Amino acid sequence: MQKSCHKLIEAMSTMLQGRDFAVSTLQAVGIGLVGASVLAYNAVIIIYRLYFDPLSKFPGPKLYAISNLPYLFQDKILGTWVKSTTTIHAKYGPIVRIAPNRLAMDGSIGWKEIFMRRPNLPEFGKSTEFYGVGKLGIFPVDREDHRRQRRAMAHAFSAAALQDQEDYVKGYVDMLIQRMQNHAAEGKVVDVTRWYNYLTFDIIGELAFGEPFGCLKESDYHPLVAMIFGGIRAQASQCEGFHRRRQRDYRHGAFRLYFPHHAHARGLSAARSRDTLVVRVGGRDKHEINKGATVPACLHRGNLANLPTSFGDATADFPWVRDCWEIHPPRLYQWATYHNPTNFADPETFIPERWLPEAHPLYDARFESDNKAAFKPFSAGPRDCIGKNLAYAEMRLVVARLLWNFDISALPRQDNWESRQRIFIVSDKGPLMIKLAPRSI
């Protein structure tokens, strides 16, 4: 009896082991099938993207055509993507595939094909990845809304308005120079990037809200400005400080003279126009992005006899500033355009003489074939930067005043300042430490 029970137990154990083996086998087969399916699916995706996708006809690195990871890692993590496009364009040409669903186009052809008006064709859609799903402000709206808003805002940036704004801008430039003179007298080292930002936000605060942010006065960022640099785009209605400024009807702000009347006349509410201005400040307006680019003009002193001496003169052509924008273009991939030797001779070198007319005594024939039409630091077409005239005047005046008043030298280990910068939505310039010495005039 015991032997029978023992045999029965052995038989049942064998059956259970067989069942467990079968289950394990089925599990292994299932896992294998899932793995094979995943591999097959990805293989099909890779083959499709490389050979059958509509973008497969465009050249570019094969790995970039297969996956978004190389682009995303360089763009979102390292902040080196914008500069990497220079090498990609040099190898593959003016139109390259940089991701499964992305193309990069050199400005020599891209400005016309993407940004200019295209007869009988609609505008390209605005990327929700960059602008978000909401259509707030002047940038992401459709063509008709943009035209209406821009028409209402244009009066605040006209030549006449620029003259009215002269005293405001000059006053803050004077304050900047005074602060620099104090530092020079005390032998202090100056982070010029930080001081340029102070100037920019004080001017925008004065013109938009009738009250500066007080950055120059306090020698520090206003809390709201600090939030902007931290990546926070605060809505005006959520911020008590901005709300108080709204209720003052801009007090004596220069833009107040232009927005209320023209905004209503063009079907744009005052609140909408104010929101647009706040978005411009919160988004670090393009001319602020370029502000750090005036530094090379100070470190590579040019012909001081050509410096403007007044705000009016500063709005005239001043080629020493243009070469700076090759270093800090305000939009992605312009870096590649401006550093492409096909477009510009010796593009890696700061040579402002490239912009001089042929009649100028310092004209250099080496740059005769430069594709100057590809140089558009404020974008192009009907959506180019509405504040570019103010930006031009401000930057030229600042550079002229700095060069007129100071001898400027960079501290050791600052030579690679540009190459160390990372670029995300805007350029993360980092500190540029310089030393100022009063200049004998």
UniProtKB/TrEMBL annotation:
Positions contributing to heme binding: C385
Pfam families, alphabetized: p450 (PF00067)
Required co-factor? heme
Q: Which residues cross the membrane?
A: 21-51
The record's InterPro entries line, in alphabetical order, gives: Cyt_P450, Cyt_P450_CS, Cyt_P450_E_grp-IV, Cyt_P450_sf, Cytochrome_P450_monoxygenase
Q: Which UniProt keywords apply?
A: Heme, Iron, Membrane, Metal-binding, Monooxygenase, Oxidoreductase, Transmembrane, Transmembrane helix
Q: Which domain of life is it from?
A: Eukaryota
Spell out the molecular function terms from Gene Ontology.
heme binding; iron ion binding; monooxygenase activity; oxidoreductase activity, acting on paired donors, with incorporation or reduction of molecular oxygen
For this chain, the family text in UniProt reads: Belongs to the cytochrome P450 family.
- What name has this protein been given in UniProt? Cytochrome P450
Question: In which organism is this protein found?
Answer: Apiospora kogelbergensis
